Amino acid sequence: MTPDPMPATTSDDGRLRSAKTLTALVYGLQAVAFFLGITAVIAVIINYVKRGDVRGTWIESHFRWQIRTFWFSLLWLVVGTATVFVLVGYAILLADTIWVIYRIVKGWLRLNDHKPMYQD
Asked: What DSSP element (H or E) covers 2?
């Protein structure tokens, strides 16, 4: 008699554990981007490449959160940089920085608690 195949729950648990680790790595890359900007680009590439692997799981919401964090922060970085000469750009850049820190921290904490992100 052949042994039963591995239960789906064990396989799913392993898949989720791997996806959670990858998601934490992306949050880490986003954080390191404050010192090495290129890591934000690497993080969003990982999100897009691995998005299919997390589809239908609670981690999918983290990927969406991370992707939106990247694109909106890039938008406000461009706007802030373009308006720095009229001084309002500094406020925009400061607000963008605080907003990105908030999203990284909030996402990491919810990931650690095994909770999906809000619909944003």
From this structure: none
The answer to whether the beta carbons of residues 48 and 41 sit under 8 Å apart is: no
Residue in this structure with the two tokens 């954080």, named with its chain if needed: 31
* Residue whose tokens read 């919810």: 110
**Is 89:80 a contact under the CB 8 Å cutoff?**
yes
pLDDT tens readout for residues 44-95: 999 999 999 999 999 999 999 999 999 999 999 999 999 999 999 999 999 9
What span, in angstroms and rounded, lies between the C-alpha atoms of 92 and 11?
Answer: 45
**Cα distance between residue 75 and residue 98, in whole Å:** 15
Contacts within 8 Å (CB) and 24+ apart, 37-44: 40/70, 40/73, 43/70, 44/70, 44/71
Q: For the chain, which residues make up each domain, given as ranges?
A: 17-112
What the block records as the tokens of 42 is: 């690497």
The answer, as to whether pTM is greater than 0.70, is yes
